[in-house]
Amino acid sequence: MSAPVKRTQWDEDPTLFRKDHGLSKKVLLNCCLVRWIISWASPNKKDSVEDELELSAVRHRPEALELLEAQTRFSRKELQILYRGFKNECPSGVVNEDTFKEIYAQFFPQGDASTYAHFLFNAFDTDHNGSVSFEDFVMGLSILLRGTVQEKLNWAFNLYDINKDGYITKEEMLDIIKSIYDMMGKCTYPILKEETPRQHVEIFFQKMDKNRDGVVTIDEFIDCCQNDENIMRSMQLFENVI
Amino acid sequence: MAAGVAAWLPFARAAAIGWMPVASAPMPPPPREMRRGQDGLIMLNVSGTRFQTWRNTLERYPDTLLGSTERDFFFHEETNEYFFDRDPDIFRHILNFYRTGKLHYPRHECISAYDEELAFFGIIPEIIGDCCYEEYKDRRRENTERIQDDEENENNNDLVLPELSFRESMWRAFENPHTSTMALVFYYVTGFFIAVSVMANVVETVPCSSGPNRAKEVSCGERYALAFFCLDTACVMIFTVEYLLRLIAAPSRYKFVKSVMSIIDVVAIMPYYIGLVMTDNEDVSGAFVTLRVFRVFRIFKFSRHSAGLRILGYTLKSCASELGFLLFSLTMAIIIFATVMFYAEKGSSATKFTSIPAAFWYTIVTMTTLGYGDMVPKTIMGKIFGSVCSLSGVLVIALPVPVIVSNFSRIYHQSQRAEKRRAQKKTRLARIRATKSGGANAYLQYKRNGMLADAEEEASKEAGQSLVCKINPTFETQHHHLLHCLEKTTGNRLETIPVLLGAGLPEKQPKLQSIWI
């Protein structure tokens, strides 16, 4: 057997190796076997390094306070309070969909809030990168709590329009309504029947779809909501939440 | 709800705007906002160590000292801070509870000091987080046991017994020989007679020196038959009296008769009476001799006197499955090797391996590495298989034995711990149920009354002995309003509120194992 070689050379092409040192095939196989045994014994080396990189990349720092103050309608103090709560719950600075679903589900223990949480997540995640950062969160809240009625209705339309094509179809609405009914859970009075969500969708479309083309556009939606007193009044409901 | 999740309530309420356009009924009015002052920093001085936190953080738990107005008693005007003359190291954990919603138990702290601090600050130990709860309970139990032992040692010197009936006191004397001198005397006397009886059984089979005019040797039992008979009678008399006394004193006679110890007692004294009853009939004398073997069971009566024997018996019983497996695998190996050896040695002449059952003896002796040498293989194949047999015997026997030994200690400790955990689980479930029932009933109450102001009072009444600090009632009412909005959106009513097990910490998926109230 030749003198022991550096380990890095094993990564190179074994044929080169053989040519340079004139080793026999048998010895080469032994080396490969030994290498295989060593790599089998410590398989997680590469993975753990990758995992660590991934974890550290997830830390996110939000924009400066002044910038957020300019972009949203919250005061400095309110932003501070919001961020403290946000950071306490999500130390990494971003919320991914699963965490979002978990947090939202805790307010509705009786039912399954995961579908609605999914739609909500997509509505907040405006840049569609799979995670809600503090900026997304605060922008969304700014519209919901301090925005004009127009903006709120816009946001609601965006929520209902699942594929973001500018039209709400009956299927999209059915999904949304079903997810809301899911949040109620099983123990309701009266018991939830199969056709209740569908009926609800029909009522909604009868009200909103003015030209009866089977879809609701943003203008139809906003017009119709502005003419409905109940909806207008309920939009002002949560003004004092923060 | 964990305190942290309450921080997301404003977000959930804002997101409820998404329900508004599809609502089938008008929304309920929002709850009255109680404008608490500006959120400010509070300075807490604990024996010189300064802690600072937001006022809101402390007011998350209004049932505790720091969260309620009780802290005003500790306000120090000169320095404009709250001063507590307590341990700052333990206070750190208490303050972290307000911040994170989880109470941790530091392992290096003394359990009674920690308990005192918790009691002072009005925090119930049941809310210690899952990570530290087991440790806390273990330490607590050790501590209470230690205190109890100390008390018992003190009390044993000056016995002030309550008035027990004669029967009860007799049973107590039998169970705990240390309670009175009479019991102790009885304990030692029975122990002595058990030993004497067993010794007599052993000695009477020893061949005594025969007289010069006798042809063969006789055993001592035959030579001194009368003496041994009297000894046996005396022992059996004592045992019978003891058994009858125990039977009279037992609180549950049926249970006593079924117990193992009483069966051993009966088996120990039966042969004597049967022997008395039976006449010197030639036919039955053989059976009678066999019956005398049962007298050796008297040795098991010692287990009342030795705790170690009892533990051994119990662990053998609980390791029955492992022992059974060992026996089964041994049987398999014996049959295999006996068959192989028989057929290997079949060819050899004048072989001792006359049949497979005969080869069993060889296999057992070889596998347990006894090797008596009364049966040895002669053919080459026989010798090869014989060596394989002895090697595998070492493995088959040596491997499970340490497993069984470790099983002993594991099972023993486990059975103790299983009881502990079962009891803990019940109380924790009850605690969680009490909290959640307090919350859910509060919601239904709130809807019935349509009012918000009384919700927190009703909640605390209905939760009964609320074992856990309540969360901020403002958050409760806002959460209830949110649920009410959801009801109005769908047009259905929530009948019962299920309860989430595991207080909804955001790291884990909340277990959807809902229990209906």
UniProtKB/TrEMBL annotation, chain A:
**Alphabetized Pfam families for the sequence:** EF-hand_7, EF-hand_8
The record, for SUPFAM superfamilies, names: EF-hand
Fetch the Gene3D superfamilies from UniProt: EF-hand
Q: Which GO terms describe its molecular function?
A: calcium ion binding; potassium channel activity; potassium channel regulator activity
Q: Which UniProt keywords apply?
A: Calcium, Cell membrane, Cytoplasm, Ion channel, Ion transport, Membrane, Metal-binding, Peroxisome, Phosphoprotein, Potassium, Potassium channel, Potassium transport, Repeat, Transport, Voltage-gated channel
Localization annotation: Cell membrane; Cytoplasm; Peroxisome
Q: Which GO terms describe its biological process?
A: regulation of potassium ion transmembrane transport
Membrane-related topology note: Peripheral membrane protein
The answer on whether this UniProt entry bears the keyword Membrane reads: yes
Q: Which family does it belong to?
A: Belongs to the recoverin family.
The protein here is known as Kv channel-interacting protein 4
TrEMBL record, chain B:
Single Gene Ontology BP term?
Answer: action potential
Which organism does this record belong to?
Carassius auratus (Goldfish)
Q: Main localization of the protein?
A: membrane
**Transmembrane region(s):** 224-245, 257-278, 323-344, 356-372, 384-405
Where is it found, in Gene Ontology cellular component terms?
dendritic spine; neuronal cell body; postsynaptic membrane; voltage-gated potassium channel complex
Q: Which residues form the BTB domain?
A: 40-139
The text of the family note is: Belongs to the potassium channel family. D (Shal) (TC 1.A.1.2) subfamily. Kv4.1/KCND1 sub-subfamily.
Q: Which InterPro entries match?
A: BTB/POZ_dom, Ion_trans_dom, K_chnl_volt-dep_Kv, K_chnl_volt-dep_Kv4, K_chnl_volt-dep_Kv4_C, Shal-type_N, SKP1/BTB/POZ_sf, T1-type_BTB
Record flagged with keyword Ion transport: yes
Q: Which GO terms describe its molecular function?
A: A-type (transient outward) potassium channel activity
- How does the protein associate with the membrane? Multi-pass membrane protein
- The coiled-coil regions, if any, are none
Write out the entry's keywords from A to Z: Ion channel, Ion transport, Membrane, Potassium, Potassium channel, Potassium transport, Signal, Transmembrane, Transmembrane helix, Transport, Voltage-gated channel
Q: Does the keyword Chaperone apply?
A: no
| Signal peptide residues on this chain, from the entry's feature table | 1-24
Tell me what this protein is called.
A-type voltage-gated potassium channel KCND1
Provide the protein's localization.
Membrane
> How does the annotation summarize its subunit structure?
Component of heteromultimeric potassium channels. Identified in potassium channel complexes containing KCND1, KCND2, KCND3, KCNIP1, KCNIP2, KCNIP3, KCNIP4, DPP6 and DPP10.
